[in-house]
Description:
The chain is of the alpha/beta class. The protein has helices spanning 20-31, 44-52, 70-83, 108-118, 120-134, 158-177, 210-219, 247-267, and strands spanning 11-15, 36-40, 59-63, 87-92, 140-146, 183-189, 231-233. Pfam families: adh_short (PF00106).
Amino acid sequence: MSLSRNSLTPGALVLGAGGNVGFGVVGALLEAGSPVLAVGREGPRMSALAEHFDDEPGLDLLHAPCIHDDRDAARLAEQVRERGRPLRAVFASMGTPPQSGRLLDRPASFLLERLEADLIPHLAAARHLLPLLAEGQHAANYVLIGGPYAERGWSGYGHASVTGAAMRMLAQVLHEEAHALGVRVQLLSVDKPVCTPENAINACAEWPDALAVGRSAVSLLTRGDRASQSIVPWSARDARPPEQTLACDFEETLWAVAGARRNGRASA
């Protein structure tokens, strides 16, 4: 049985897998040899994901509604737990497309709507998926992916800068609070817009594509030198194809889990 098909091999969960960046994260994980549970709304984008990676035995899809609150997140966590495969990592790529316009021209309720759509779902997901990660007998990672201009105002997209800044603070708080659970929480801060099929005609040369962002996010699983950082800036250096797969790391983890279970039964 191949490693990717082994139900005991820890896998990675991707929230927002049907989005552009989520697509790139899924591709980078499969490229690195990780089993992937791709979570997203049923529809054309998830169908396209399944079709693109049709020959990848390590990919599994879970169609689920968008996370809005604790109830949605709790339902998702239960669905994941029922599948029986241990998790080694969660990648959260959730958010709504930015809408242009000055904040001063919008009612105050608009910013509240953006926070409810682009920030609160991340907190709800973390509240229920971090404990799930902590149940495993292995080191675990929770990677948030943040958008551009969170450290300075984005002209015409001020609401995205405000919600992005809030995401950075959320990541720092979760990084500290999840330490006791044995889970490393980090935010990959992508300080440039991501080049997508929709904006490619106007994209600048330095804009990363989704796979480059995905590779950088996946690199956080093995970059021990960055373990203490809650915020990790995106870098093209981390977007190169992997030199080795994650399979060896997963195999070591699998043996560790098996050993822990043997020990547990022996001491029972």
